[in-house]
């Protein structure tokens, strides 16, 4: 007899019974005192278990949190909706549905992250046949300076077997080279020629095709027909890999024959525009760390981690079985992983950062990227729904459902933003309640939710920062997200701009609409305070809506700060080094500190105040870099390298004379020396991620920090606005005087 079916049925029965019991408990009609006792007990239990990080303790805490949230939403439905008003009810129901959505995502997130799975690196077994590896680097219109480091790094990867690098240039197709627009065709031809020559120099294979069909997915699918490697490593054009990438990942495929793909983190060496423009890039964890350092670990426990488009190794047999990279949606990566899982293949998430990518440089590029993600994940929900997909386990369905539903947030976050305005400015009754109800039902739900979120994600996300990121995006993504429901197949793949520069401090082009919303929220705040003072009978309910609106106001002020683009002249990132170096000029050797480097430049600080270096001089920069392989005692060995560089700037710094240099040579061999120093070792990214985890602060500190940021950015935005207004009116005034 097959015992698996009865066991599965027993598990299903257990889960449904548990959910039903939780529902019964949550809907019990109890007195206010009893509810307060339950909420207080739940709060104390969570505090008592806060130091116990075991899976059992976490599970128990999550059950408590789910119980309190279910009681809250049950109360909201029965006690706070204006059923008697046909005018107010639709708007009140809209807010209620938005809250239900938030709690659904919250509860599914609990399930997904209940037990993070930290995989260990599996060494390659050289005694067994080694799989051949094809490295795909798809590119379209990224600047050459962005693509070259990735090609260079891929060509220098360590691997004992056969490995081939393929540059998939969709910017050099026959269609683009023969564009009717002569200038665009000539620009594409120049770019393609540079790429071809660079590929030839480093030993990479250049692949292009006839037409730009089906964007990145079509580009990769075309390359699949041109290659035959057992494994395929896919790298975005700006994702520079460390040399140990294949050494850390291929062993997993040898160990697990049914492994379809291995995903690794996307690590970004440049801060995102929100963190950079707010000036908090070294004060809070990166936005992406919550997903790559927590959520994917939980999904891996359920065999539900998915392909994220880059920094992943895929078994050719798995991808060919599903017909290649999916072309149904513009988030082809997650859609492809869903298809691979449905065919019975396993997945793995190895939480070792081994690529260094570039974040979007401007707020506009950030919105472009997230708009594609939002539309694509909604497409998956509509066209390839995980609940209806055959071949997935229950847990995999929840993982994919959580990931797709999350990207509905632009719609519901906009509802949260507009709801207080409906009440304060239009007098629509979106919520029936008073301050006492707020303290009894709302506060316990909010406080316990925050405590649980802090437990699950405290090391990777500050309290209330998810609300900040979502508010910054929701206004601009709401309509694109809604449009997918009308035309699910219409969204087009848009490449995220990389390598952009900003020559001066200025507001993003998207700012006016956010400023308009800011004006509405300020108007609602002022009107609400006026009503609170003038109409004492409304105070009990007004105070709740004013608090809600004040929180939104704080978020919008921070959003405006995030849209005030800081000056960024460098198109190429610099990486901190701070190691000993020597600058040689003529017969003199000057001791220096190598502060930071890029693939084509460096900044050094001289230890001597007297020197004979001038701008325009050609100097010999000497430093140490790690040799390939390790010594007998498994410690890295180093060699001395020399690079000719031209001095482009000399300035006095806090710690000495700073010398800024650019490489004279454009040879790939010289850039490889810089690559080995800057990008070669994954330990560099490991140390950065460990540093970001140590930035964890408690909820109270996070709240105080949030208030401080709001005050600082309100001043910054107001000051910049006044300065720009004065600068724009000054020339006009001069012209009027001259005309007079």
TrEMBL record:
Under the heading InterPro entries, the entry gives:
Cell_synth_A, Glyco_trans_2-like, Glycosyltr_2/OpgH_subfam, Nucleotide-diphossugar_trans, PilZ_domain
State if Transmembrane is listed as a keyword: yes
Q: In which pathway does it act?
A: Glycan metabolism; bacterial cellulose biosynthesis
- Cofactors per UniProt? Mg(2+)
Q: Which domain of life is it from?
A: Bacteria
Entry's EC annotation:
2.4.1.12
Residue ranges of domain Glycosyltransferase 2-like in the record: 231-444
Q: Locate the transmembrane regions by residue number.
A: 12-28, 34-50, 57-77, 89-112, 405-426, 438-457, 469-487, 507-530, 542-564
Question: What is the protein's name according to its record?
Answer: Cellulose synthase catalytic subunit [UDP-forming]
| Protein species of origin | Grimontia kaedaensis
What gene name does this entry carry?
bcsA
């Amino acid at each position: 007899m097959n015992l698996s079916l009865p066991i599965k049925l027993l598990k299903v029965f257990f889960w449904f019974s548990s959910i039903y019991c939780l529902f019964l408990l949550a809907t019990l009609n109890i007195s206010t005192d009893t509810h307060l006792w339950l909420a207080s007990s739940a709060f104390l239990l969570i505090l008592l278990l806060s130091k116990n990080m075991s899976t059992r303790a976490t599970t128990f805490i999550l059950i408590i949190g789910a119980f309190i949230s279910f009681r809250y939403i049950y109360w909201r439905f029965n006690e706070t909706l204006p059923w008697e008003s046909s005018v107010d009810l639709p708007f009140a129901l809209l807010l209620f549905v938005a809250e239900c959505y938030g709690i659904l995502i919250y509860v599914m997130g609990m399930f997904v992250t209940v037990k993070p799975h930290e995989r260990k690196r599996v060494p390659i077994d050289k005694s067994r046949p080694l799989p051949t590896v094809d490295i795909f680097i798809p590119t379209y219109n990224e600047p050459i300076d962005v693509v070259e480091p990735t090609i260079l790094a891929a060509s220098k990867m360590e691997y004992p077997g056969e490995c081939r690098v393929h540059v998939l240039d969709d910017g050099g197709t026959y269609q683009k080279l023969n564009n009717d627009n002569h200038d665009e065709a000539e620009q594409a031809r120049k770019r393609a020629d540079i790429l071809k020559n660079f590929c030839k120099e480093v030993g990479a294979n250049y692949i292009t095709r006839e037409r730009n069909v089906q964007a990145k997915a079509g580009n990769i699918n075309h390359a699949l027909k041109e290659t035959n490697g057992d494994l395929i490593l896919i790298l975005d054009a700006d994702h520079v890999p460390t040399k140990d990438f294949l050494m850390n990942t291929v062993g997993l495929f040898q160990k697990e024959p049914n492994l379809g793909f291995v995903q690794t983190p996307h690590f970004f060496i440049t801060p995102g525009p929100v963190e950079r423009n707010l000036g908090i890039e070294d004060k809070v964890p990166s936005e992406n760390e919550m997903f790559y350092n927590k959520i994917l670990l939980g999904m891996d426990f359920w065999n539900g981690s998915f392909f994220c488009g880059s920094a992943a190794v895929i078994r050719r047999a798995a991808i060919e079985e599903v017909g290649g990279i999916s072309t149904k949606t513009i988030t082809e990566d997650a859609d492809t992983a869903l298809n691979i899982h449905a065919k019975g293949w396993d997945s793995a998430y190895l939480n070792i950062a081994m690529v260094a990518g570039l974040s979007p440089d401007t707020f506009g590029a950030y919105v472009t990227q997230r708009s594609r993600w939002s539309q694509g994940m909604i497409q998956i929900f509509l066209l390839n729904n995980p609940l209806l997909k055959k071949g997935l386990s229950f847990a995999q369905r929840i993982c994919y459902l959580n990931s797709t539903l999350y990207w509905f947030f632009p719609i519901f976050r906009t509802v949260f933003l507009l709801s207080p305005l409906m009440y304060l400015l239009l007098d629509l009754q979106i919520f029936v309640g008073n301050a006492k109800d707020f303290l009894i039902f709302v506060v316990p739900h909010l406080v316990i939710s925050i405590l649980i979120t802090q437990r699950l994600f405290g090391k990777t996300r500050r309290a209330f920062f998810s609300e900040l990121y979502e508010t910054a995006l929701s206004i601009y993504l709401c309509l694109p997200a809604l449009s997918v429901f009308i035309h699910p197949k219409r969204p087009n793949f848009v490449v995220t701009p990389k390598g952009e520069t900003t020559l001066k401090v200025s507001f993003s082009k998207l700012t006016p609409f956010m400023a308009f919303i800011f004006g509405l929220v300020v108007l609602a705040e002022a009107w609400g305070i006026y009503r609170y003072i003038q109409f004492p009978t409304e105070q009990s309910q007004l105070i709740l809506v004013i608090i809600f609106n004040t929180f939104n106001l704080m978020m919008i002020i921070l959003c405006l700060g995030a849209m005030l683009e800081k000056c960024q002249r460098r198109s190429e990132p610099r990486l901190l080094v701070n190691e000993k170096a020597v600058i040689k000029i003529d017969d003199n050797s000057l001791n220096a500190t190598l502060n930071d480097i890029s693939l084509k430049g460096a900044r050094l600080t001289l230890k001597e105040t007297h020197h004979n270096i001038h701008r325009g001089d050609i100097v010999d920069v000497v430093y140490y870099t790690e040799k390939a392989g390790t010594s007998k005692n498994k410690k890295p060995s180093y060699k001395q390298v020399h690079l000719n560089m031209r001095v482009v700037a000399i300035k006095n710094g806090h710690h000495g004379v700073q010398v800024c240099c650019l490489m004279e040579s454009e040879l790939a061999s010289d850039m490889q020396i810089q690559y080995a120093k800057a990008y070669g070792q994954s330990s560099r990214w490991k140390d950065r991620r460990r540093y970001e985890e140590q930035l964890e602060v408690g909820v109270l500190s996070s709240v105080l920090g949030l208030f401080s940021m709001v005050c600082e950015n309100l001043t910054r935005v107001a000051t910049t606005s006044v300065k720009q207004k004065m600068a724009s009116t000054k020339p006009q005034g001069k012209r009027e005087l001259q005309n007079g």
